[in-house]
Amino acid sequence: MESVLILTHADETGAALTKPSLEAISAGLELSTRLGVSIAIGVVAPGPIALPKSLPCAVVAVSGEAFAQPRYATDAAACEALCRAQKPSIVLAPASSRFTRVMAGVAHRLGGVIDTHITAIRGHAGIEASRWLYRQRIEAVITRDARPWFLLLDAGTHAAFTADPSAPAVTIEKIHVDLPALRTTVTGIETPKQDALTIRPDAKLLFVAGAGWTKKQPDGQVRAQEAGELILGFLRASGASLGSSKSLVDQGEGQGGNSVLPFLTHMNQVGQTGATPRHPKGLAACCHGEEPHVIGWRFIAERRAISLDPNCGWTRGKADVVYIADAFRVMAKVNELLAARSQS
Amino acid sequence: MANALHIVACAGIVPDPLQTLEPTLAPTGPAIRNEMVLPAMLDPWAACALYEAASLIAKNPGEPQNPSKLWLVSLTPKAKLQQVMMTVAQKLSFELVPIDGPIGGFTDAHSTAAILAETIAALPGLDRGKLLLFGGWESANRGAGVTLQLIGERLGITDQFQGVDQIELRDDGPFEVLERVEGGRHQVSVCAGPPAVLGWATGNLPEPRNNPQIGMDNMRTIMPVLQKAKTAALDTNSLRYVSATLPAQQRTTRVVKDMHPEAIAQEIVEWIGKDS
Ligand SMILES: Cc1cc2nc3c(=O)[nH]c(=O)nc-3n(C[C@H](O)[C@H](O)[C@H](O)COP(=O)(O)OP(=O)(O)OC[C@H]3O[C@@H](n4cnc5c(N)ncnc54)[C@H](O)[C@@H]3O)c2cc1C
């Protein structure tokens, strides 16, 4: 008989669970209901935490100041203790940077196995999990008999659990953790230069800038500064998240990883050697839409592109709509229209 | 800085991303059709790790009687690895430790990690107290991001960092690491010193230029070790593929030519505002 443990952790305030943790709770509840098996939730948090009401299962938690820092030694010890206390056969956890850093180590300590980047879990008799291989080029459904089986769920693949505010608060059982000697201290978080937080995972729209923005234009001019202003103006007006092609960010190599557009770094890069973000819509401008770039768009539902080149990759079945036009002119007008809307 | 570093970089090889990949069923389970003959390259994020390792060693060479060292450990078909080495070996100096094994991303990471850990533990001359275990934070084939972590656990290393973009050694032994976290930010940590595991993201270094002299020096040692590479079989650890398919990729694209930029802008703004 299977038993499911959902591992979750506090957000940066320490007072609430992260959204991906709430998504893992939904996925776990769905799975345990389908299989008709027991379920528990494990929490890693520095101190008391406001858990959603109406959680229909046992909650165990580790807490202490040591868990305020996302760090391998402490987080691995915490998750190990929660698993040893619950002895689950299936462990679900969000693929946050915090849990991605440690969960394979935890699976190893428990004598278990792990699979990551899980996008869906199905199956009645057994458990089957979907994941992508070769950077989102091949979709596989996998299963394993080995237990405990750890599954790390990609963010945005499940709806977040919502509490019933009228339900009673849940009681939490504390689990003791023996901490190893600590050799690592988290000293802070660095935000991008100029404080321009351009990566917004929850945005409805991904705006992808390509190398065309900084290339010589048909009038013979390079208009990088104007490009930067148009892009930032659009991000401000639309709330979009900013992605980039590799060619554009690579232009800044040797300048501390920054592009000639100073607000872009390799973290904005989408594609084979970049990110594969999840947004309902994506708009590319001045980007050619080559395959190593477009595989980063796997989870973007609606796709449009603006390019001068009628033979660019986007026109070959990779986007829903491609505008063959000058992105400088189009985006200037888009910004104007958005500004007019916000004033009306 | 006098402290010598022993850096072990783990890297596999993957198909060139411009190639078309087609899944097929082999006797052992799913595979990529003709993967052995597709042009291959060093796994990109692991390659970044290798470049960062070489740069760190150039800055911290150690002392003549106690020099810093760089090993490149790779579990992959040796014939394919030899092809990839023709270019990689021209970029920087390292000692290759090849293990002849199956190609592809459908293998089980736990088995790969077990073999790599065993190989690293047996490296002649490796001082585990000086060890920095490098690799990519995810491969471009399996993309699981767990192999380095598992090797680290097997070697008893509990200072681990993933999505690393920067390491800075301090004079007295500790180092500072920048790891990617959500929202395009970096978490900054200070670790007391090796041993540690660092799974690299892109880092900050460009690909080193090819230098035929370095290539010739490297190949003198690479060819004999490739010939003597031990063979490893990988356990599945009960991993079974129910299916492995190509997604339906093709969209019906509306290509809009000769529309005035103002009209395009209008259409885009309407589209952005619509609930999908
Ligand atoms: C191992 C490997 C990994 C890779 N990983 C990635 C990755 O992760 N991400 C990635 O993006 N790429 C990746 N690439 C590179 C990829 O193959 C392409 O080279 C890259 O995506 C091209 O970037 P681009 O489209 O921005 O630039 P270009 O190919 O230079 O295209 C610029 C486009 O802008 C258009 N343009 C110019 N001016 C205007 C204008 N005024 N208005 C409208 N359009 C205009 C041009 O017509 C052109 O279509 C990888 C390659 C390899 C070999």
Low-confidence parts of chain A, pLDDT < 50 over ≥5 residues? Answer: none
How many structural domains of chain A? Answer: 2
| Broad CATH class of the largest domain in chain A | Alpha Beta
Question: What is the name of the CATH superfamily of chain B?
Answer: HUPs
Considering the protein shown, what is the CATH homologous superfamily of the largest domain in chain A? HUPs
CATH class of chain B: Alpha Beta
Helix % of chain B is: 25-40%
Q: In which order are the strands of the major sheet of chain B placed?
A: 13-12-11-14-10-1-8-9-15
CATH fold-type name of chain B: Rossmann fold
CATH topology of the largest domain in chain A: Rossmann fold
For the biggest β-sheet of chain A, the strand order reads 5-9-4-1-2-3-10
Q: Which small-molecule ligands are present, each listed once?
A: flavin-adenine dinucleotide
> What is the number of strand segments of chain A?
16
- Note the beta-strand portion of chain B: 25-35%
Question: Any overview of this molecule?
Answer:
Chain A folds into two domains: 3-174, HUPs (Rossmann fold, 3-Layer(aba) Sandwich); 194-343, TPP-binding domain (Rossmann fold, 3-Layer(aba) Sandwich). Helices cover 25% and strands 26% of the residues of chain A. Chain A has helices at 19-35, 72-86, 97-109, 224-238, 246-250, 291-294, 327-343, and strands at 3-9, 38-45, 58-63, 90-94, 113-118, 120-122, 128-133, 138-143, 149-153, 172-174, 184-190, 205-209, 241-244, 279-285, 300-307, 321-324. In chain A, the strands form three sheets. A seven-stranded parallel sheet of chain A has the order 5-9-4-1-2-3-10, with helices on both faces. In chain A, strands 13-12-14-15-16 form a five-stranded parallel sheet. In chain A, a hairpin with a 4-residue loop joins β7 (128-133) and β8 (138-143). The model of chain A has no long low-confidence stretch (mean pLDDT 94). Chain B has one domain: Rossmann fold (3-Layer(aba) Sandwich), CATH 3.40.50.620. Chain B has a nine-stranded mixed sheet, sandwiched between helices. A two-stranded antiparallel sheet of chain B has the order 2-5. Chain B has a two-stranded antiparallel sheet with strand order 3-4. In chain B, β8, α2 (78-88) and β9 (95-100) form a beta-alpha-beta unit. The mean pLDDT of chain B is 95. Flavin-adenine dinucleotide binds next to α5, α6, β15 and α7 of chain A.
